[in-house]
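User: Here's a protein and a ligand (pyridoxal-5'-phosphate). What would the complex look like?
Assistant: Let me lay out the input and then the predicted complex.
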Amino acid sequence: MTDRKSELAENLARVEERIAAACAAAGRPREEVTLIVVTKTYPAGDVRILHGLGVRHVAENRDQDAAPKAAACADLDLTWHFVGQLQTNKVRSVVGYADVVQSVDRLRLVSSLSAAAGKAGRELGCLIQVALDAEAGGRGDRGGVAPDGVEELAAALDEAPGLRLAGLMTVAPLVGEYAGRQRAAFDRLMDLSTALRVNRPAANMVSAGMSADLEDAIAAGATHVRVGTAVLGVRPKLG
Ligand SMILES: *Cc1c(COP(=O)(O)O)cnc(C)c1O
């Protein structure tokens, strides 16, 4: 094995142990939780190594980095998740490679994604990103719609050709009432998910938890955790 391959294999094994332990502690079967490795800032070569180690879900947050990386890995059976704030002028590019957009947070993005998915002849999974620290009617600093805006976006997604509402996503807030209270934040996301699923049972993805707080997310009921640093290492400071 190359040095990088053994490093990634060791990191991945450690993350896998954490996920398994968190599932066991929560009384949940391991298969209920999908690991998504966030490969942002790392090269396509790392994605290829991770695929060789069994990873099938990867995530990126900037189209300018993600588009060439996805193209370089087009021969691999990978599910690509887009998790960054998404400008409408990048939508056409993102729809070209993403299977799931986890950061849907405004009506204009719904119409733009729907138009692009239609043109590309693709069906795109969409998660509504919830900003638990946003004021009613607003959006968070780091993207996401306030909890009271979820239903309006869900209704728009229900009607949008080419888009499939798959569930909810959040990033634990750094400020506000949930700062430092990841478990409470993820419990709140689960309540919103329960409400959403009353009329939309298929929208059952709950994407929450990162390197530092994946245990809290799994305890709360997350179905997908998004892990970067703990697998790939500390990112060079840029995005
Ligand atoms: C970078 C990123 C992650 C991964 O964060 P780590 O702390 O490196 O595990 C997860 N979710 C989103 C939206 C991200 O931008």
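Summary: The longest helix spans residues 3-26.
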